[in-house]
Every structure is written in C-alpha cells, then in structure tokens.
Design brief:
The strands form 4 sheets. Strands 2-1-5-4-3 form a 5-stranded antiparallel beta sheet. It is 45% helix and 24% strand. Helix 6 packs across helix 7. The protein is built from 16 helices and 17 strands. The radius of gyration is 44 Å and the shape is elongated. It is of the alpha+beta class. The protein folds into 3 domains: 2-186, PAS domain (Beta-Lactamase, 2-Layer Sandwich); 191-296, PAS domain (Beta-Lactamase); 303-494, Histidine kinase-like ATPase, C-terminal domain (Heat Shock Protein 90, 2-Layer Sandwich), CATH 3.30.565.10.
Length: 500
C-alpha cells in the first residue's frame, strides 16, 4: 500500500505540473500524459491512450510535414536504440484539436528520457515538451517589423539569434549523426578487415566483422590485442604496432603470415594478410591509437604458389618427355636401318606417349587408373581380344606414362609376332595389389592362342624399353618368358615411392 500510495502521489504530482509530460511504450504508443500535455495539444486522454504518437499527430499538411514527423520519430527511436536521452531544441509540428478540421502551426522544444527495467532494457520514454510557438511568433514580429539591430539580450533572443543558433546546432547534430552512421555502416560492411586500437596496450576499441572473424569470431571489443590474439607475439606483430605508436610512422605489411584460429576454440590455420597500420592522433597531435585496414590475401598467395608449382612441374615434365623422346629416337634408330621402318615405329611410339598424355590431361595431370591406361594403349587391336582383370589402381602421372609405353610395346609385339597376329589369339592381363603394409602392384601379361614362340636370339628395343622403364623409372622388377604356348611378362612395381 505504501508503494502504491507513492505511485499515486507521483502520478498526481506529474498531472499537477504546469509542464507538459507524456509517456510512450517501446512501440511508441501513448501510455499516459498529464493535463498540461492535454491542454497544450488540445486533445482528450481517451483519444490518445493506446495510439502511436505519429498516428495521433501527423504533423499536418505541407511538404515539410513528413520531415517534421520523421524528426520526432527518429528522436524517439534513437532513445530506444541507444538507451540515452535525446533532445530536439526546435521542432515545427502542427496539431489539430479534437473535433477540429484546421491545423495549428506549432513550435516545440522536446526532451525524450528513457525509462528502463531491472535488466536495463528501455521499456518506456518520458517526453517533456515545451511549446515555444509564442516565442517564435514574437521573433517573427521583431525581425519583420524592427529594422534596427537588437540591443538587449532579450531582443537578441527574440530576434532570432539564439533561436537560429538552436536550429543550426540541431541541424548540425542531425547531419553529423547521419554522417557518423554512414561511416559506421561503411566501416562495418567493408570487405576488408578494419580495427581501431587504443593506447599502448592496443585495446580493440572497435572492429568490423571481418577483423573479428580473422581472430576466431569471438567478442574481442575492449580486449587487449595481446589477450585476443596471443599467437601474434611470435610473429612480430606487436613489435611493429609498438613502433607505430612510438614513431608515428605508418607500417605496411605485404603477404604477412598469420596464425588465425578457426572458431573460438578451433585449431589455427595459416593466413596471409596485406595491411597498413596508421597512427591516430588526438587534437593535441599526440598519438592515441592505431587504425588497421587490410585484406586477407591467402587465396591469392596460395594461387601464386600453385602456379609456380605447376610451372616447375611443367618444366620437369617437358624435360622428362624430351629425354624420353630422345631415348626412343636413338634406340629405334639402332634397331631399324631402313628409314621407312624407323619412321613407322618411331611414330607409333610417340603416338603412344601422346595418348597417355591425353589421358592424364583429362584429370589435370593428377593421375590415371591402370585399367584406363591399358584400354587406351590396346584399343587399336580390338578390346574384344583382350581380357582385363583387376581392381581399380590409381597411378601417379610418372607411373602412367611409363606403364603406357610398356603396354604399347607389349601390344605392338603381340600384334607383330604373338597372340594378336592371328585371328584366334587373345591376351589376358591380370593385376593385383599385395602386401598392404608395403603395397606392390603385380601385373601379368599372358598371350594365348597365337603362333608358337621361342626365346629371341637378341634383345630388341622393345624388350630393352620394357626392362628399362620397369627397373629404372618404376623401381620394379620384370620377367619375360617365352614358352611355346605364348609369351608371358610378369611385372612387379612398388606403389609407395617418390616420383622422380
């Protein structure tokens, strides 16, 4: 009862005040107003309670009415947003009395004060309004009727100097607030990262989302940068920040390496940043902080590294390919005295090399499957005459090139002298991966149904190329057998090896 009595006394006191007061909720709807407010607005309480301010008073006709209503609405919304009181020194706002049809042009001076709950949320706004219409009318009379300069303080006030100064300050405050909001929006929405560090401890006074994301996405405002990102200490970042404060000279970083956390508790990942640290000076010229602005250039750095790696790899492959072509040319020339025979054999081997390169190009030189290489090199002889049996085995580019040439030689020899030289012959190719701890690929090429074969008197270039590629390029072993029923080749190569 005592609290209720105090509440009633407070309401009664406000209602008895000659100064107009009104109370709105967080939806800008009237909750209460005192009698002085009803008198000055010429409205009834039952006509206002529950209505939004801008619905109850629309500021009247004319082009300026919408702007006048916007000023009042903006002031009230600013109080809700900031939790701070706001003032309108001069507000031109026409009103229409209850039951009337004509608007009365009025001038007001308003103060909007937030009312907060126990958690600090703004639940209501108390407005104290002063009607200064008569002062404005008197000012106009003095300005338009008195040609001489005013001489007294009252004359100065009435003639408009103080009034115009209040209007000017209010307009400047609105303009500065608008510009500040625009700058803040630009700061927060900038694609690069930005931050303002304050004092010798580099306190993060404000930052945009890109900067916060760079440090793990957690809340770091008002934290020391050393506390927010201790890993930067070992990278020398705090040394050059200290230099900027001590010397006043800006610092530029280009593609600087930074350990960036992935989430608030996640592992760190290396990022590359290009940025500038600019000193911030106060009105006296003293350095008060640092403005950081920059971009994450990790993607560009990694792309450049990949490009360099690709160029180095291309140079390596071109050299290897040229060496292979040179070896093929020399060995083919030794085995073929006839120029036409040499040209045909050399061309077929170069085409085999080209076919394997085409196959690798499809995968951007990441590798090829063993079955694909086999089919690619034997397709010209009819795949229906070959039986391929084995699991999928991924070959790196070097292995694919070497095995492609080996399969080409085996298929060419089979077409000339072995199973593929007759209509009934067939080739069976089986492969498997053994010893998973130290994986090795075993390939068996077996010919059947062809003419009888015998061990050759001398080793031709094809045999030497097969043996050289297996032993030298693939670090494996090869055994060539010539039983009467058909030629057989057994190849074993390691799968875990360093690519030459």
């Amino acid at each position: 009862m005592r609290i209720l009595a105090k509440t009633i006394d407070l309401v009664a006191a406000f209602d008895a005040s000659p100064n107009p007061y009104m109370l709105v909720d967080d939806q800008l709807r009237y909750v209460w107003m005192n009698q002085a407010y009803l008198d000055v607005t010429k409205r009834r309480r039952e006509d206002l309670i529950g209505r939004r301010v801008t619905d109850a008073f629309d500021a009247g006709p004319g082009e300026a009415a919408a702007e006048n209503a916007r000023q009042l609405r903006h002031s009230l919304e600013k109080v809700l947003e900031t939790g701070q009181a706001d003032h309108l020194a001069v507000l031109r706002y026409a009103i229409r009395p209850s039951g009337g049809s004509a608007y009365e042009d009025r001038y007001w001076s308003c103060t909007q004060t937030p009312i907060k709950d126990a958690e600090g949320r703004v639940t209501h706004i108390l407005q104290h309004t002063t009607d200064i219409t008569e002062l404005e009318q008197l000012r106009r009379q003095v300005v338009f009727q008195t040609p001489s300069e005013p001489s007294t303080a009252l004359d100065i006030m009435i003639s408009g100097d103080v009034f115009r100064r209040a209007l000017t300050v209010q307009a400047d405050n609105r303009r500065l607030a608008s510009e500040r909001n625009q700058l803040l929006d630009m700061f927060m929405q900038a694609p690069g990262f930005m931050a303002v560090l304050s004092g010798p401890d580099h306190i993060v006074q404000m930052h945009n989302p890109a900067f916060g994301q760079l440090l793990g996405g957690r809340e770091i405002t008002d934290m020391s940068l050393r506390e927010a990102a201790p890993d930067l200490d070992s990278q020398g970042y705090f040394d050059f920040l200290d230099d900027v404060l001590n010397t006043g000279e800006p610092f530029r970083g280009s593609q600087s390496r930074m350990p960036a956390p992935q989430g608030s508790d996640g592992p760190t990942a290396t990022r590359f940043l290009s940025f500038v640290c600019q000193p911030i000076r106060d009105a006296g010229g003293e350095i008060a902080g640092i403005f950081i602005q920059g971009h994450d250039v990790t993607d560009s750095v990694l792309a450049a590294e990949r490009q360099k790696l690709m160029i180095d790899e291309l140079n390596h492959r071109v050299k290897n390919t040229l060496a292979t072509v040179q070896s093929i040319a020399m060995q083919t020339a030794r085995s073929h005295g006839d120029p036409r025979s040499f040209a045909e054999t050399f061309q077929s081997r170069i085409l085999s090399l080209s076919h394997t390169h085409d196959l690798l190009t499809r995968s951007h030189w990441e590798g090829a499957d063993l079955r694909e290489v086999l089919e690619h090199e034997t397709a010209a002889h009819g795949l229906h005459r070959l039986t391929l049996n084995g699991p999928n085995v991924a070959l790196d580019p070097a292995m694919a090139v070497s095995l492609g040439m080996i399969f080409h030689e085996l298929a060419t020899n089979a077409a000339k002298y072995g199973a593929l030289s007759s209509g009934e012959g067939r080739v069976l190719v089986d492969w498997s991966v053994v010893e998973l701890a130290d994986p090795r690929l075993t390939i068996t090429w077996r010919e059947t149904g062809g003419p009888s074969v015998a061990t050759p008197d001398r080793r031709g270039f094809g045999s030497r190329l097969i043996e050289r590629n297996v032993r030298h390029d693939l670090a494996g072993t090869v055994q060539l057998h010539y039983p009467d029923i058909g030629f057989t080749a057994e190849i074993t190569i390691p799968l875990d090896r360093e690519t030459p």
